[in-house]
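Record type: monomer structure entry
Structure origin: computed from sequence
Chain ID: A
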Amino acid sequence: MARNEPVFVYPGGARETLKRTTDEKYQLFWEGRNGFAAMAIRWGATIIPVVSYGSEHFMDIVADLPLGWVPIPWLWGSDRTLPLISPRRPERLYFEIGDPIETARYGGDFESEPNVAEVKAAAQAAVQSGLERLAARRELDYPSEREYAQRARSAGDSLARYIRSLVGARL
């Protein structure tokens, strides 16, 4: 950032990517994720919200493989999981590039919690509203998604039962 080069940041991180069976598709997990906003303010960077929609329709999560038993310090004893997936047919991907969020007006005061909260809220609102617009657009292309999702969920449940029977444990 000191060289004024673009930086790609994914505020939701691995938790947002590796969803659980109990998570909704495209749910954002930005709680406590303020670092990107603070760094943007510190360097006066412009945030360009980029939203993608469709990738979470490529698969169904059928089970959550617990990772708390793995002897790696940041996994051991944690509630982290790895999703076991059932692939679906590839579908369209939708993208939206949002309006820039300027941070230079904060004068580099990245230690100000109100400044950081404001920038984070603006970025999160831009992403959330982009997801909603792209979901509505996708609905035009796939109007019978609910029926397809119910069939896929049923197949995913069958696969999860089969995997559990092989492993002999609850996942």
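Annotation 1: The first strand starts at residue 50 and ends at 53.
Annotation 2: Residues 13-167 form one domain.
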